[in-house]
Amino acid sequence: AADKIHLIPQDFFAELCEQIIQHLNRKIPGINTAELCQRIRTSGVEINIGDLAKIANILSFLFSTAARNNLSTEELITTLGSAVSTLPKHAVQVIRHVWNEQGKAIAVSEDARDMATVGQFVDMKWKLGVAMSSDTCRSLKYPYVTVTLTVADPSGQITDRSFEMTIPQFKNFFRQFKEMASVLETV
């Protein structure tokens, strides 16, 4: 993935680094690599989302490790060592600049590290649908609920997970959410 960094224009690479720093500081739930990949493609650069996600993971690991070890900007660049020769000059400049400006702000507490291993809930959307017919059944008229959960995994990648439920399953799901809300109100 590191060899794909040269494909990313400097402004997009800087934006990716900024988002990673913000994610590590818990200011945003994750990095939306799908949206960033689409914007990079729109600018005329061919890169796939898998490579961009790998680059984001590498940078996230780099910044979080540098924060954990309390590295200065020069120590970070020196630690990159041989990778600096393989990285494009603009990438090294962006890493140096972002770390110099915002690196010290990364708070890597034990609680934050423990939370990061779980991931984070970002958003939930739902819609009601009715299956009218299928190849094997002429008249279904079967209602269902489609739920889409947006989740930021521990590395900060934002993904959508969708599933369907019958109406009784959705009512049970809703009841459990109400129970959680009432317990949270007592805390």
From TrEMBL:
Domain (COMM): give its ranges.
120-187
PROSITE patterns, A to Z: COMM (PS51269)
Q: GO: which molecular function terms?
A: NF-kappaB binding
Pfam families per UniProt: COMM_domain
Q: What family does the Swiss-Prot or TrEMBL record give for this protein?
A: Belongs to the COMM domain-containing protein 6 family.
According to its UniProt entry, what is the function of this protein? Scaffold protein in the commander complex that is essential for endosomal recycling of transmembrane cargos; the commander complex is composed of the CCC subcomplex and the retriever subcomplex. May modulate activity of cullin-RING E3 ubiquitin ligase (CRL) complexes. Down-regulates activation of NF-kappa-B. Inhibits TNF-induced NFKB1 activation.
Protein's name according to its UniProt entry = COMM domain-containing protein 6
Q: Quote the gene name from the UniProt entry.
A: Commd6
